[in-house]
Amino acid sequence: VEITFNHYLVLSAMLFAIGTAGVFLRRSVITLMLSVEIMLNAVNLTFVAAASSRWSMARSRCSSSSRWPPPRPPSASRW
Amino acid sequence: LAFEALLFYVFAALAVGASLLVVGQRNPVYSVVLLIVSFIALAGLYVLLDSPFAAVIQIIVYAGAIMVLFLFVVMLLNVPREETEYDRTHPLNRPAARWMGAGLTLVLVLQIGWAVWHISTRRPGALADAAPGTVSSVREIGRVLFTDYALPFEATSLLILVAMVGGILIARAMPSSE
Question: What value of ipTM does the predicted structure carry?
């Protein structure tokens, strides 16, 4: 089983939903802040995963092949 | 590769479980400590995504600074633990806010459902496997941050200045209202 971008998207959606539920369910202001932090970190996870998948796309564009999914380059000659 | 998948599921379960406990916890001190656990699991996920810089920043800034600040606020303000299971004194519990919250919940559920349906019918994008020296070297990040992304950087600093001024204004306006 390969971990793909979709796995990270689903995980991020779950974390964001948990944070939203916390904002709407809890009463103390501190816990509201903590729930907002959970939501922010879910969005951060989306950004990092998107950057990672974008990076692999850009690298496959640099290499000569146009096949999708890009083949794994040999570890010696990365560029 | 199976080991990476195993690590992903372990970190994901840790993050989701700790976040659920943060929301479900009565004692705010426990909530803060559990949130630190969730952030460390997220840092592990960043390492799996080949972004060690983001992982280190996550641990130093979030787990180290912001959460310690939250812990200080909780300790200093003596935030009471929520005793009763449910009452109607939520700060967002006003009619307009209630309708807006219902609308936002509907939008969020629709969006997440649409996204999950969409990505289940589409070919998954491959994740970067490795490029350790080039992707996330601190030197390269700093160079790009001050050349190509100088405008977003300055916009961020302006945003932080606005937040600081707002915090000072709120803190100064607090005693006069009592």
Answer: 0.73
